[in-house]
Amino acid sequence: MFEHRTEPLLPWSAFFIRIIGLLLIVAGIVALALATGVIGYHTLGGLPWIDALLNAAMILGGMGPVDALHTDAAKLFASAYALFSGVVFIAVAGLLLAPLFHRVLHHFHLELDEEETERTTR
């Protein structure tokens, strides 16, 4: 997915296309995770759709639940969904930050290669 260290740095236009593609993937992951939470809170927690959406969005965003859950199944789902949401957050952050870190590191590696080439040709 990323250019090798021996390849030139990706042009900005291609880099932005890569970022847009990753944003679409991230949006799909977040939408799927949110839908999972909404369905779980609605079916297991007995919450209306809008309250299920609010709870799922708050958990997925790291804020915490809004409504109290009264059944053991709902509480178990909420526990599993909270752990799942943490993993989704880490994965999404990694997907979004990886190309940025790669670009910075690739840029510095190219500069080091140029300096090394200058030293060996002298």
What is this structure, in a nutshell?
By secondary structure, the chain is mostly helical. The protein has a single domain, classed as Orthogonal Bundle (Helix Hairpins), CATH 1.10.287.70.
Word description of this protein:
The chain is mainly alpha-helical. The chain has one domain (14-121): Orthogonal Bundle (Helix Hairpins). The protein has three helices and no strands. It has helices at 12-43, 49-60, 72-121. α1 crosses α2 (49-60). The two termini are 36 Å apart.
Sequence-ordered SSE layout with sheet pairings:
Layout lengths: L11 H32 L5 H12 L11 H50 L1
Helix pairs in contact: 1-2, 1-3
Rounded to the nearest angstrom, the radius of gyration is: 22 Å
Number of distinct helices: 3
Order of helices and strands: HHH
CATH architecture: Orthogonal Bundle
Name the overall outline. Answer: elongated
Which class do the helix and strand fractions yield? mainly alpha
Q: Work out the number of β strands.
A: 0
Question: How many distinct domains?
Answer: 1
CATH uppermost class: Mainly Alpha
Instruction: Give start-end ranges of low-pLDDT stretches.
Output: none
